[in-house]
Design goal:
By secondary structure, the protein is of the alpha+beta class. It folds into two domains: about 120 residues; about 250 residues, Aminoglycoside 3'-phosphotransferase, Chain: A, domain 2. Helices cover about 40% and strands about 15% of the residues. It is built from 14 helices and 14 strands. The N and C termini lie far apart (about 60 Å).
Length: about 375
């Protein structure tokens, strides 16, 4: 019996939802008390999401009024591959994340509003940003403005300062943190093997031949990196730190796939299902890694970091930080190490990105990743 069949047999009350079954969605939302007296679901549209079912629902009243919302259902498997297990209760930590940041105006203003949650069916009902699209287009040649980069950095700064030193057991999210750890620190640096749920959503890393097909020399560079003792030791040390308690609430997957560009040019951050207590440097390093992977200009990366760290450059080139940031400053070497591991994961691990082809780019960036992970140096962080 499949994982899905077993789950449905054990939990007949859950009602697994699909965007092509608007009638069932209408029944479930009605049972949850999420529909007005004269309101019904008219259409559903799948918005993507590899680990959860995320859909836009259009709700219409008999009198003609209408609205939209986002419905997210988290189930104990990967949506695109039901053989891969995921923590069944991850929606709880995501709900707790939204509840926590609702008390932080600067953070809440950059995220969808959580309108309701339903425990029995692992459902979240979220504000919809109609007309928005995620910024995965950056990997395919689009450009990020310095203004948007500063907004993203400012979001992380507000999250860090607003939650530091105030842990919440509901936000530990141990299952998703362990899954993130596996995808970051284990799967990319093992010899490629047949896929399985032990490797998590990224799956198995490509073998040497597949990497060579992506870029000549990349398979050889990957093998060298996996056998590089200083790199492996650095990754092992960082791995242990990642699993520690940390100092503040983190998003956990702060990359362009979870950044939404609004029709008016604004930006919103979504999908904090990996969020939990950790190092603020992890989110900053992850974002910088993806800006480098997406070939964004140095000034954009620097603008992001300056906003995240709360630093300003004076006329003489010196950086200054306000009192809050000076007290709870970011560790640049730690940011570089996290960035290095994330870059390596995306270049030689299973979590491949749709990067533009360019001779030597990936091999060169993989060497940058090694330097960052081993020495804690990343050029865009240097003053």
């Amino acid at each position: 019996m499949s994982r899905r069949a077993e789950f449905e047999a054990e939990h007949p009350e859950v009602h697994i939802l699909s965007a092509d079954q608007a009638g069932r969605v209408d029944l479930v939302m009605g049972a949850a008390g999420w529909l007005g007296e004269e309101e019904q679901v008219t259409t559903c549209a799948l918005l993507g999401g590899e680990s959860s079912t995320v859909m836009r629902v259009e709700l219409q009243e008999l009198r003609g009024g209408w609205r939209t919302a986002v419905l997210k259902q988290s189930l104990p498997w990967l949506r695109r591959d039901e053989s891969v297990a995921l923590p069944a209760d991850r929606w709880r930590a995501e709900r707790a994340f939204y509840a926590r940041v609702a008390r932080l105006p600067e953070v809440a203003a950059r995220m969808p509003r959580l309108m309701s949650a339903n425990q029995a069916r692992s459902l979240l009902l979220l504000e919809d940003f109609r007309g928005a699209s995620n910024l995965a287009s950056l990997y395919r040649g689009a450009s990020l403005t310095e203004e948007v980069a500063q907004a993203l950095g400012g979001f992380l700064r507000a999250l860090r300062l607003g939650t530091r030193g105030d842990p919440d057991p509901e936000l530990e999210n141990a299952g998703m943190k362990a899954l993130n750890h596996r995808m970051l620190f284990e799967a990319p640096f093992t010899s490629p093997v047949a896929g399985g749920d032990g490797l998590g959503p990224d799956g198995a890393p490509p073998d040497a031949a597949a990497l060579e097909a992506v870029e000549p020399g990349l398979g050889e560079a990957a093998a060298a990196l996996r056998s590089d003792r200083p790199f492996r030791e650095s990754v092992a040390g960082l791995s242990g730190r990642f699993l520690g308690d940390g100092t503040c609430l983190t998003h956990g997957a702060f990359h362009p796939g979870n950044w939404l560009q609004l029709a008016d040019g604004g930006v919103r951050i979504v999908d904090p299902q990996f969020g939990g207590w950790g190092d603020p440097e992890f989110d900053v390093g992850t974002a910088l890694a993806h800006l480098l992977l997406a070939r964004q200009p140095d000034q954009v990366a620097k603008a992001f970091f300056a906003a995240a760290a709360g630093v300003e450059e004076e006329d003489d080139g010196e950086e200054t930080a306000d009192a809050d940031d000076a007290e709870a400053g970011l560790d640049r070497e730690l940011i570089a190490r996290y960035a290095g591991v994330e870059i390596a994961r995306r270049l030689i691990g299973g979590g491949q990105l749709p990067l533009k082809a360019e001779a030597g780019f990936r091999c060169g960036l993989l060497e940058t990743a090694r330097t960052a992970a081993v020495s804690g140096r990343l050029e865009v962080l240097e003053t």
